[in-house]
Each structure stands twice: as structure tokens, then as C-alpha cells.
Design goal:
heterodimer; A: alpha+beta; Alpha-Beta Plaits; two-stranded antiparallel sheet; B: FAD/NAD(P)-binding domain; D-Amino Acid Oxidase, Chain A, domain 2; 3 domains; 8-stranded mixed sheet; 7-stranded mixed sheet; binds flavin-adenine dinucleotide; binds iron/sulfur cluster
């Protein structure tokens, strides 16, 4: 099993509750910021990736709400809030 | 006028039903104070991650009754630390009656279970708990915190206790937070691996509800500041890594954090330990590890900050500690509120008692003692050089060559030249700061 498919299936073990909108957004015009490229390294859920145009894109499936991308990139690059109450990941063990 | 609720709201609003928030709510409710806890998860613990083991000695006295029946997992009767180099490791085990006999100093714990239990204890005392409630902002009037906004509603209170964890929006909005600096934070990632109770006890040589805590340093984090951990629970294993976010951002090999965990699990020394187990959850969480220098402001007009929200977690190499600081700071925040309520004054001046109480307790004493821990421990020599060096020495000591074997003394001497010893002494001197 490759590491990426391993990660996807691991995320599939968690309980997630849908929310009406995803709680993190890359700020407009910042998609190519070199600091954002580092988010690819630090997101434990592997949600950040770089597309062929060199822009960083964010997938909204399986966010662990850990906050690492916010610490790494700051509010200058990201609109970051927690998902609304009662949605998002719900850890059964923690 | 004491006891009078001046603004038609609650006496106290606690934001965040983690350890700090629930500890504060429990104490306040016990003393008859009207307290509302707002928690964004479906239940308390739904958003919380720890390693984890909790040390009881520092908080045994202040929560003597409460913690007696707590649903912990196993008492830690065996400690192991392993140094990992690229293809070998060495392990030290510490145990014996001093760890194995009650009162036990630490327990493994799972937060979804523990926090939910703690929430029930606070509710039994009369605390109100609103789950699925995310706080979006604070109500600030002339610099004074008057309550919070949640789900479009204004909830007013005499005082707000921000216990909303490491990213604390509440203290940020109240202007009490320092700017984010990646060197003051680590990310922890973890798997909970289910395994038959008996299999755990056999594999780790545990008697009954004994547990083991294992730490791994060196190659597990590719030499970055941090380490791996393994804790045995009753019928699962908590396995994970803690890594400095700054080191991850700067790592030239572009190592991805989730790959680090996979590689850690694939090491033969580790894969044997989890063999036959089934991963049932994957989690991650930021940890404040900046220590004393990175602490945020602890109080303001109408507000107190406790737990991770204030920055109360320490990484002292062999362990990350945050849970007992969260419980204790929640306790002292509650004591401060009781005092302010007596005076009928929730100004900054009155709430300043909180800092004093923390100064007099183990909380700020520890933070001062370990104020240099991060800078001293965050050295590549510790995480790369020494694991390799010790590994080399052991390899050569154990190695039986086809021909005659070198004398033991010259084997060791080969690695411990004047330069090495001199540098090691320098490292020891630096370590003496903590
Ligand atoms: C991988 C890892 C390993 C660790 N290992 C250990 C260990 O072995 N021992 C140890 O002592 N410590 C350890 N720690 C640290 C310890 O877990 C924390 O210090 C501790 O959980 C802090 O407790 P808290 O109550 O301050 O914060 P939290 O437990 O984070 O609680 C904060 C609460 O606030 C809620 N919240 C946040 N924002 C809002 C909002 N806007 N509205 C409503 N609710 C909100 C959250 O849902 C949460 O319930 C570890 C941490 C990690 C991540
Ligand atoms: S909060 Fe954590 S899991 Fe979610 S996108 Fe950011 S780094 Fe990834």
C-alpha cells in the first residue's frame, strides 16, 4: 500500500459530520505563496497539494482540525476557523 | 454588590469543555456558582487529542475526591526509552516496585472517554453544558470582556474563562495572545490501535492493569525536534509522533509528517509491537511547547485564560506535559473567580490574583524551571548525532569479527576521542540549564 492511499484509508476510519461549508480557505491571490507550499509538508491529513500551475489547492475531505496549517501559514494566507458546532471530526478515542 | 449578576447574563461562561474548562466548571459549580460551558464538539472530548499519560501527583491534592474514580486506562508501571538510528536502536527500561506500587504516579488515558466523564461530574455539581456550540467572538466593551457570541446569539457573563485550547480564538479576540510563531508549536499525530487485552499484557509483559509508556527519539523524527510515543491502554495502543512545526517547515528533505508516522510504524522494532492490532482512529493536534517565554497573557478585564489556551504545555524531552497544567490552571482560574465574586469586581486588577496563585503553585514554578528546555533540547546533536554514536559503539561492542576482536577499551576509545568528549561536556553544560 502506498503511503498516500494508506493515509486516505486511515482518514476513512474517523467519524466526520458534514458541515454546510468548509472551514478553511486559502486567501485569494495567495495560492502561489511559497510559504503555502510548506503546508503540503505539515498537514497530517494530506489536504494540501500543488497543482500543475504551481498553485496550492486544499481538499476539504478529512480535516483533523489540528491547526497545524494555521500555525505554519498564519492568517495572512488562510481564512481559518473551526467548523460550526456539532460538525467536523468527532474523535471516539482521542 | 456581591453575588448580584450585574448584566442579566450568566455568572461565568467557560469556553471549551476540555480539561481546563471542565476543571474550572466543576469547582465553580461545586461552590454554587452559575456556570455555562460552551463546547463545539458533539460531546466533550470529541475534538481533543493527547498522547497520553496524565501525571497525578501535582493535582492529587486539589482534586482528591474527583480523580479517585476517574476512568483512566492503565497505571504506568514500566517506562522505556529508545534511541533510534537509521537501522538500529537501543532501549532502556525502567521499572520495579517504585513504579509498580500504589499510589501510581501516572496513567494512560483516552480523552473522548475521560473528558465525557469529567463533563458528567461537572454537570452533577450543577454546571450547565452546551455542546455543539462554537464560540465565534467575544463581546468587548471599552476593552472589557462582557461575554461571548455563539451561533448568532450574545451570551453575557460577569467573567469569561477561555479554555478553548491551543488556538484559542477567545483570547486572541480579547487581545491577549502573542503572534503565532511556528517555533513555539509542535504537531502531534497519533493512531489508536485496537488489540486484545490479553495480547497487550503478554506482549508488553504487563501484570493485570499495569501499563507501559515508551518513548522513541532520533531517527523516528528524521532528526527533527520531537519524538515518538507508545502508551498501552486497556484494549488499545496509542502510537504517535510529536514534531516541531518549525523543523518540519525547514526540513530540506521535504519529509511529509504523515509519512514519518508510516515509516515509524514500519520500523521492525515498532511493527512487532503493533502486529495483529487494528487501527481504529487517526488524529492530530497542535501542541504549545514554547514554555515560559511563549506564554500568552493570563487575564484581562472580565477574562481569564487557562490550559493550552494560555500556553500551558511543556516539552521536556522525555515527556510532553499539558493535562495536569490544564486541570490545575482551571482550578486556579475558578479560585480566582470565587475571590472576584466575593468582591463583586471582575476587573483586571482583581483577576490578577490568578497569576499569583499560579506563581505559588507547581504550574508557573515548572514553567520557570524549564524555561530554557526548548532551546537546550532542540539540538540536532541530541536527535541525530548521539543516537548514531551510541549505536556505533554498541554495534562494535557486540560485533564478533571473523578474525580477532578489538579490546573493549580501544573499541570505545575509537568513538570517544578528545573532541567528542569535549563537545559532549559542552552539551552536558547546556543541559544543566534545565
Ligand atoms: C499528540 C499529543 C500528545 C500529548 N501527550 C501528552 C501527554 O502524554 N501528557 C500530557 O499531560 N499532555 C500531553 N499533551 C498535551 C495535552 O493533551 C494538552 O495540553 C491538554 O489536552 C490541554 O487541555 P485543555 O483543556 O487546555 O485544551 P483542550 O483539551 O484542547 O480543550 C479545548 C476545548 O475547547 C473546545 N473549543 C475550542 N475552541 C472552541 C470554540 N471556539 N467554541 C467552543 N469550544 C471550543 C475544544 O473543542 C476542546 O474541547 C499531548 C498533546 C498532543 C496533541
Ligand atoms: S487543520 Fe490540520 S488537518 Fe486540517 S487542513 Fe490544517 S493541517 Fe490539515
Amino acid at each position: 500500500m502506498s503511503l498516500t492511499t494508506g493515509l486516505k484509508s486511515k482518514l476513512g476510519l474517523n467519524v466526520f459530520k458534514e458541515s454546510s461549508k468548509f472551514h478553511i480557505r486559502i486567501k485569494e491571490g495567495k495560492e502561489k505563496d511559497p510559504r503555502l507550499q510548506k503546508a503540503v509538508l505539515v498537514c497530517p491529513a494530506g489536504l494540501y497539494s500543488q497543482n500543475p500551475e504551481g498553485e496550492v489547492v486544499l481538499s476539504s475531505d478529512g480535516c483533523l482540525e489540528c491547526g497545524t496549517c494555521l500555525i505554519a501559514c498564519g492568517r495572512e494566507l488562510l481564512d481559518w476557523e473551526y467548523p460550526e458546532g456539532g460538525s467536523g471530526v468527532q474523535f471516539r478515542f482521542g | 454588590m456581591p453575588y448580584q449578576n450585574e448584566n442579566d447574563g450568566f455568572e461565568v461562561i467557560v469556553v471549551g469543555g476540555g480539561l481546563a474548562g471542565l476543571a474550572a466548571a466543576y469547582i465553580l459549580a461545586d461552590r454554587g456558582v452559575e456556570v455555562l460551558v460552551l463546547e463545539r464538539g458533539d460531546y466533550c472530548g470529541a475534538k481533543n487529542v493527547t498522547g497520553g499519560r496524565i501525571y497525578l501527583n501535582p493535582v492529587r491534592e486539589i482534586f482528591s475526591q474527583l480523580l479517585k474514580d476517574a476512568p483512566f486506562e492503565r497505571h504506568i508501571a514500566h517506562e522505556e526509552v529508545s534511541l533510534f538510528a537509521a537501522s538500529r536502536s537501543l532501549t532502556l527500561r525502567y521499572d520495579g516496585s517504585e513504579l509498580g506500587d500504589p499510589p501510581y504516579q501516572s496513567y494512560s488515558v483516552l480523552r473522548a472517554k475521560f473528558d465525557r466523564w469529567l463533563a458528567r461530574q461537572a454537570e452533577k455539581k450543577g454546571a450547565m453544558l452546551a455542546t455543539k456550540s462554537r464560540v465565534d467572538d467575544v463581546i468587548l466593551e471599552n476593552g472589557v470582556v462582557k461575554g461571548v457570541r455563539a451561533g448568532g446569539e450574545e451570551l453575557r457573563a460577569n467573567v469569561v474563562i477561555a479554555c478553548d485550547g491551543v488556538l484559542s480564538l477567545v483570547s486572541e479576540r480579547a487581545g491577549l495572545r502573542k503572534d503565532i510563531q511556528p517555533q513555539y508549536y509542535a504537531v502531534g499525530i497519533k493512531e489508536v490501535i485496537e488489540m486484545d487485552r490479553k495480547a497487550i499484557e503478554n506482549r508488553f509483559n504487563l501484570e493485570g492493569e499495569e501499563g507501559v509508556a515508551r518513548l522513541f527519539m532520533g531517527d523516528v523524527t528524521a532528526g527533527m525536534f520531537g519524538g515518538g510515543f507508545l502508551y498501552t491502554n486497556l484494549d488499545s495502543i496509542s502510537l504517535g509522533l510529536v514534531v516541531s512545526i518549525k523543523d518540519l517547515l525547514e526540513n530540506q528533505r521535504e519529509v511529509i509528517v504523515s509519512d514519518l508516522l508510516e515509516r515509524f510504524k514500519q520500523r521492525s522494532e515498532v511493527s512487532l509491537l503493533i502486529k495483529g492490532g487494528e487501527t481504529v482512529e487517526y488524529s492530530a493536534h497542535v501542541i504549545p511547547e514554547g514554555g515560559f517565554n511563549a506564554l500568552n497573557s493570563l487575564y484581562g478585564d472580565g477574562i481569564l485564560v487557562a490550559g493550552d489556551a494560555a500556553g500551558f504545555a511543556l516539552n521536556i524531552g522525555v515527556t510532553v506535559r499539558g493535562m495536569e497544567y490544564a486541570l490545575a490552571s482551571g482550578y486556579y482560574a475558578a479560585q480566582t473567580v470565587l475571590h472576584a465574586r466575593e468582591k463583586g469586581d471582575y476587573s483586571r486588577a482583581t483577576l490578577g490574583l490568578y497569576r499569583q496563585l499560579l506563581e505559588d503553585s507547581f504550574v508557573l514554578k515548572d514553567f520557570k524551571s524549564f524555561r530554557d528546555a526548548l532551546s537546550v533540547l532542540n539540538s540536532p546533536r541530541l536527535f541525530q548525532h548521539y543516537p548514531e554514536l551510541l549505536g556505533n559503539i554498541l554495534r562494535d561492542l557486540y560485533w564478533i569479527p571473523p578474525g580477532p576482536k578489538d579490546r573493549l577499551y580501544s573499541t570505545v576509545r575509537r568513538y570517544l576521542g578528545v573532541r567528542e568528549v569535549w563537545q559532549a561536556l559542552g552539551d552536558v553544560r547546556r543541559m544543566s540549564k534545565i
